[in-house]
Amino acid sequence: MFEIRTDLAVEEKETCTGENKGLKGVSLREWRKASSAIKMTEVVVQDREGARAMGKPEGTYLTMEARDLGWQDEDYHREVSEELAVQLRRMVEKLKVDRAVPAAGPLYVLVVGLGNPSVTPDALGPQVLGNLKVNRSLTPLNKREEPEAVISGIVPGVMAQTGMETAEILRGIIHETEPDLIIAIDALAARSIRRLGTTIQLTDTGIQPGSGVGNHRHSLTADSLGVPVLAVGVPTVVGAAAIVHDTISTMIRTLASHMETRGMGDFLEQLPPDDQYQLICQLLEPEFGSLYVTPPDIDQTVKRLSYTISEGIHLAFYENPQDDRDFLIP
Amino acid sequence: MFEIRTDLAVEEKETCTGENKGLKGVSLREWRKASSAIKMTEVVVQDREGARAMGKPEGTYLTMEARDLGWQDEDYHREVSEELAVQLRRMVEKLKVDRAVPAAGPLYVLVVGLGNPSVTPDALGPQVLGNLKVNRSLTPLNKREEPEAVISGIVPGVMAQTGMETAEILRGIIHETEPDLIIAIDALAARSIRRLGTTIQLTDTGIQPGSGVGNHRHSLTADSLGVPVLAVGVPTVVGAAAIVHDTISTMIRTLASHMETRGMGDFLEQLPPDDQYQLICQLLEPEFGSLYVTPPDIDQTVKRLSYTISEGIHLAFYENPQDDRDFLIP
Amino acid sequence: MFEIRTDLAVEEKETCTGENKGLKGVSLREWRKASSAIKMTEVVVQDREGARAMGKPEGTYLTMEARDLGWQDEDYHREVSEELAVQLRRMVEKLKVDRAVPAAGPLYVLVVGLGNPSVTPDALGPQVLGNLKVNRSLTPLNKREEPEAVISGIVPGVMAQTGMETAEILRGIIHETEPDLIIAIDALAARSIRRLGTTIQLTDTGIQPGSGVGNHRHSLTADSLGVPVLAVGVPTVVGAAAIVHDTISTMIRTLASHMETRGMGDFLEQLPPDDQYQLICQLLEPEFGSLYVTPPDIDQTVKRLSYTISEGIHLAFYENPQDDRDFLIP
Amino acid sequence: MFEIRTDLAVEEKETCTGENKGLKGVSLREWRKASSAIKMTEVVVQDREGARAMGKPEGTYLTMEARDLGWQDEDYHREVSEELAVQLRRMVEKLKVDRAVPAAGPLYVLVVGLGNPSVTPDALGPQVLGNLKVNRSLTPLNKREEPEAVISGIVPGVMAQTGMETAEILRGIIHETEPDLIIAIDALAARSIRRLGTTIQLTDTGIQPGSGVGNHRHSLTADSLGVPVLAVGVPTVVGAAAIVHDTISTMIRTLASHMETRGMGDFLEQLPPDDQYQLICQLLEPEFGSLYVTPPDIDQTVKRLSYTISEGIHLAFYENPQDDRDFLIP
Question: For chain A, is the Cβ count within 10 Å smaller at the N or the C terminus?
């Protein structure tokens, strides 16, 4: 019942193991491009064991972070768009190798802007779609001029507004228009407020129920939709429950670090997990489940990142970004 | 090629015949409710002959007009919502009798908000959906508490943004969610600027290609979608070509009514239709086809009417409006 | 430095004294209208001592609450609009008696929609202004047809977008257009998540710095603007710091109520206030100051309440609501 | 009474004289930058005689056109932004030489986004302000780090929403914040539909009453505001009256060019101007005055151009664009 959720695999990994320890069935790789401020992290959930430990399905979770720089610099956004394009193409190439999408001919891509356009931190997906250039209606009959990718896009809305599950709407559109691949854009929930607006996650596992800002999804995956789903997300909120949880953890540590209260801190730290869980549940008000925490300048963040992501998709599918740069693997 | 289009059957009827004359295969009925400012007009296209003459498919076109009062009065809007509800229910009852929708059990209705939310006069459909209360996701499992209608809603967007035809998107969603009935809301193009924002048209024929503000539709009818389609529309624009056509007609009449120029007017009036057509085509710049004319306060009109229509749908399906008032048939 | 702020006087009162005890210089009155679900609370800060205790300036703070009913019912919203109109008129009458506004002739009112239109929970003010009917540009030259009130309106924006303080913009507009009275509409921060969207506060003290969602204000009061300021606000967010504070308080109480941990809870409860303050400060991350907590359906709440408030203003100034109903004073 | 208005001086010039002939008191200069698709036209209204002939006040009207290329290319938009920046700086330099603004120290600039944000073709000004980076609230106290320009911004709204004239609002804000210079951004009305979205006009004369999409202005000039006003505008609509006028003119020419009707055409062409005027007035319906014509993809045009213009302002005032490129004067 009680869940401190995060949509970021990189945070889930930290929660499960601490930052440096290994986890069976989960690989972690970090690198930074030469002369770049972007920190890349790849978490691969390799098997069932890893999936169980992480609470996330098998697949690749790639994180692009830029904590230091901030997101004000326009050249920097360009750099992020280019990197996103490179990584999107890599994932598509892998899908071709795996025969999950056709290896030859134009690739039919349906881009989906998840979330509620009228709730600012949930509007990332709809805003990306507002910037997206689609070309499916322009497809030439002439085979020669065939584009590399044929892109369509949809903003399905949220269940409170449509009365339908997003998966239903998408299954219908997929049935009718037969895309090879879905790219789903979504606002994510993070555990840490420092991630808000500074991280992009790209994954080949699609989108799982229960995560994100609203409750607008019901498993958008290759299994549920019949088509591979790449998901691009940016954390824009932290669940209120996460804030409460962090406060309690910090309180316990604080108590343990002071002479007079050390005994209490130690006592609480050494409570069996079940008792800790009990305690936290008592402190969490039921309303907290749906509440979220977000910064006041979230409108600017979402607007800026929506351009970064739409530009990344344009670069990946309409141009041919060169991926000849070396990576430094630390 | 050259077409002065109108989405209003009542205007098409006038164009074909003048206001008072009959047209084979087309019936016309007008009435006004006692102590009401709403003028009702029903045009029924009865057979193929009528359809050919009107350029509109067979079916019923109901117009609610309120030229005199204007649309500022809030009680008046309530009255229009109620009348819209009554007429929607009548059309639904007729569909039940015709076995086009199930006669018993809850009626599954998908409301579709056509048009481009970011172009003001085209935003009527999306704005109605913004006000609409859907209940499909709330449907109780318990048969006893079954509502009379189960409503879902979608804003499919326009082809320039989605790369998909609206009909494709809807066919997909219909395939997946199996509604009994579609109600499509759309901004319409009128012939006369006096109609802008003062008329609601309700029809059981769905929506035909080539009409409306943008080019966002490709026949949304029972034939193309497999489900009956009721369409609710309000004219918010007049095509620029219509303005040009009217100017030329007025000019010819003006010339004919003045001593010095009577000869010219007569000459032009007596030109064979083909030559008149030639002349008009020469005067129409090709760019005019897609341009439209709209008043500067269109944002207020669309906002207000979007409430009138969503309220009409709520009254029709969530409440049970009494239709016991008498009509005066003139 | 550390402040758990609330914009609601009724919450400040509870914090200072608990719900039932008195506070010097502060009067409290509660009532409920016959056959009404609206609970009214009036907090009057009577003198300097009260102002110091409350951290709020002298004046009247009227709260309209509707926790039980919720805000879904449309008739209920009408009732709230009517009550708001009655109370607005009372405050205006008091200003006339006090000679703060002219007693005769039309009253010139400038309605100000504070907040950032692109951040959903901060958009209440701008949305009220989007619904507001202004008549200043329509004022007849003929004295006979003079309206009771001449209303103008402005959405000044937020400092991050304008580079100007709201007070600067308003002082300028007041200097030029010389209104008798300002009515400022704003989204508020509450202490308790149960207040979100269920309470309206009306005050004659204007708006103080440091409160609200963003940082968009710098004292909008009769002192700073030279014109009386009535403020209408609805809490739409809770500061993240308040959530943390509540968690810690609950944790201390929880510890104190369990056998094994009673000693710790007692110990913490009995810490001197300064030490408690120290502890809380250590637990509060600096980023929390600007973060806020808000529910995911905040867009619907803000949209609905913006109509309730604009309608209240219309009723107060364009119609003449009868205030002949009795109040039950418990 | 009857006026076919255009806000573009370059069109007014054509109307007055035809494209190639001179007009007393009005100078015309055209050039194109080497390897650029931007056509520059400068119309200078030099004296009263020119002003009377043009119906526009004395000053410089600079037009940047790009008919051939269209506005789809992103590099092209960058080029336009840079050229706009260069020309803005020139006009500011001229104002410094003329001592209309201070020659030394930071320049205080208030950018004004005119128009109605909820009517798409009128939303250019508000959308530019949505992209604009202001720095007035960030101004350092330290003289050393003084920026070259201190920018603030305001979206004053339209009279139908505020009940105040834009000039009133601006005079107030100017009185309070004392900027050295106003830059007003506005959607314009053109005579020719080919100008829509393809032309930017920059002028040092401010904005005159009676022009533009809505009726939202009442002379925003150095005279009325007490501060120099640079205006940046893009035509997004053509008045319906202009369409009618063009149709009649074309009709007359068409009649004159055909054997059978040549007599009529000649007759009409040779009518005294007053009679021609009479004829046109009879053909213009009174409602046409406020109606406008606009293309269906106006939302994309306005969105794109709002970035081009905000970027031009950023380049002009926050960076230091080099103006060392040669101009070819044809």
Answer: N
Q: Exposure pattern of C229-262 as b/e (b: 16+ CB <10 Å)?
A: bbbbbbbbbbbbbbbbbbbbebbbeebbeeeebe
Q: Which of A134, A150, A176 sits opposite B172 (nearest CB)?
A: A176
- pLDDT tens, residue by residue, B82-97: 999 999 999 999 999 9
Select the residue from B291, B302, B304 to test the D interface by mutation, using most D Cβ atoms within 10 A.
B291
**ipTM for the assembly:** 0.87
Query: Using the beta-carbon criterion (under 8 Å), do A251 and C294 form an inter-chain contact?
Result: no
CB contacts, 8 Å: B137 with chain A: 159-160, 163-165
Q: Quick one: DSSP state of residue D27?
A: E
Domains belonging to chain A, first-starting first, are 9-236+297-320 (3.40.50.1450), 242-288 (no CATH)
pTM of the model: 0.89
Note the pLDDT tens digit of each residue in B67-76: 644 445 667 7
CB within 8 Å: D168 and C160: no
Cβ atoms within 10 Å, residue C70: 11
d(CA D268, CA D252): 7
| Residue A324 pLDDT | 37
Residue partners of B158: CB distance under 8 A and separation at least 6: B115, B116, B122, B166, B214, B216
Q: Which of C119, C268, C298, C301 to mutate to test the interface with A (most CBs of A within 10 A)?
A: C119
CB–CB of C175 and D174 under 8 A?
Answer: no
**Lookup: tokens for B143:** 């048969």
> What are the DSSP calls for D89-147, one per residue?
HHHHHHHHHTTSS-SSS-EEEEEEE-S-TTSGGG-HHHHHHHHPPP-GGG--SSGGG--
pLDDT value, residue A98: 95
> Considering CB atoms only, which of A214, A247, A260 is closest to C244?
A247
Strand bridging mode D26-33 / D39-45: antiparallel
Touching subunits of A (3+ CB pairs, under 8 Å) are: B, C
Cβ–Cβ below 8 Å for C283 and A251: yes
Residue of C nearest to D177 (CA): C168
DSSP C220: B
Q: Which of D250, D294, D296 sits opposite B214 (nearest CB)?
A: D296
End-to-end CA, chain A: 40
What confidence category does residue A290 fall into, taking pLDDT thresholds of 50, 70 and 90?
confident
Spatial separation of the C-alpha atoms in residues C236 and C199, rounded to whole Å: 9
Residue A162: Cβ within 10 Å count: 26
Q: What is the 3-state secondary structure (H, E, C) of A58-126?
A: CEEEEEEECCCCCCCCHHHHHHHHHHHHHHHHHHHHHHHHCCCCCCCCCEEEEEEECCCCCCHHHCHHH
- At A285 the three-state DSSP class reads coil
Packing angle, helices D298-317 and D74-97, rounded to 10? 50
Disruptive mutation site among D108, D127, D135, D137 for chain C (greatest number of C CBs within 10 Å): D137
Helix, strand, coil share of chain C (percent; to 5)? 45, 20, 35
Tokens, residue D23? 């007009």
Probe site for chain B from A154, A165, A218 (most B CB atoms < 10 A): A154
CA B234 – CA A224 distance, rounded (Å): 39
A44 to chain C, closest Cα gap in Å:
31
Q: Which of B151, B154, B171 sits opposite A169 (nearest CB)?
A: B154
Alpha-carbon dihedral angle through residues D300, D301, D304, D307, given to the nearest 10 degrees: -130
Q: How far is A244 from chain C (nearest CA, A)?
A: 6
CA distance A248 to A256: 12
Q: What is the DSSP letter of A296?
A: T
Cβ contact, residue pair B168, A173, below 8 Å: yes
C-alpha B183/C-alpha B87 separation (Å) is 13
